[in-house]
Design brief:
- By secondary structure, this protein is an alpha+beta fold.
- It has helices at 8-15, 29-37, 45-49, 87-93; strands at residues 2-3, 18-23, 53-55, 61-63, 68-79, 100-111.
- The strands form two sheets. A four-stranded antiparallel sheet has the order 1-6-5-2. Strands 3-4 form a two-stranded antiparallel ribbon.
Length: 113
Amino acid sequence: AYIRPQRYTKEFVDRSEYFTLSFFPEQYRKQLALCGAKSGRELDKVAACGFTVAEGAGGAPYFEQAELVLVCRKRMVQPMEEALIPPEVREKWYKGDYHIMYWGEIVEALVQA
């Protein structure tokens, strides 16, 4: 998983040994667009989207509305190296705020019926 350093999500991922990757059906596109446009620092996105929080292995939070959730145990965290990013990508998408890379071992896969 790749997370920019200024994202609120990073604070949560850094505090825990586990993180989740959630995959939603098409019907939640509008809610997910809101999640991508607003910070959790300024808006309770869970309430605004009508999502229900549940817990997976290690107490890792996820949303019950997701059709697939991968619960991962953090195995490695590393800042993205500038040298790995092609110059044209760096110039277009970055201002020195390179993503932090999180490697996780999948310890649980949850499939909603």
